[in-house]
Amino acid sequence: MNKVKLSKTGEMYIPKTLSKILNIEVGDRLNIFIEGKKIVLTSKEGFENENKCTYNQKGTIHIPAEIRRISNIDTDVVFTITIDEKENQVCLIPDIG
Hints:
Elements: E1 3-5, E2 11-13, H1 16-22, E3 29-35, E4 38-42, E5 51-54, E6 60-62, H2 65-70, E7 78-84, E8 89-94
Antiparallel strand pairs: 1-7, 2-6, 3-4, 3-5, 4-8, 7-8
């Protein structure tokens, strides 16, 4: 799977392959930040000043409203996923046409 969709409530399903790469389990907190036009998710330490989201039991995360606003993305946006296993991060690139 190389695409994910943002729901109307700002939630996004994280496929099991991505949760394994991020090394996360239900209840874990993820760092979420903007890098250029990408939204970056990482479980690495050292991001104390970044936004956080929690990986929940439904296998989803909530993209904070300020991240959606700054990124100029709306609900129902589809993202292309890129994976940087060396940096232990997942990048979401909005498919804005």
